[in-house]
Amino acid sequence: MKKFMLAVGLLSLAGTAFAEGKSCEELKAEIAAGLDAKGVSGYSLEIVDKGTPTDGKIVGTCEKGTKEIVYKR
């Protein structure tokens, strides 16, 4: 349940960033700061082209929807 709430929060943040057109690096840094503040460790965030197959969870969209940020535990 805790991970679900974290994911919902991250997706909310990502939606806001998409509307504002933030850079991928800026959004990635904000997501990492949020995770670190919640005490999450042992994760990685990766910027990939939209639609790239991945085994992680998409937690953000950036560069006007052309890239995605993927969270892996």
TrEMBL record:
The keyword Signal applies. Residues 1-19 form the signal peptide. Pfam families: DUF1161. Keywords: Signal. This is DUF1161 domain-containing protein. It comes from Pseudomonas hormoni. The lineage of its organism: Bacteria, Pseudomonadati, Pseudomonadota, Gammaproteobacteria, Pseudomonadales.
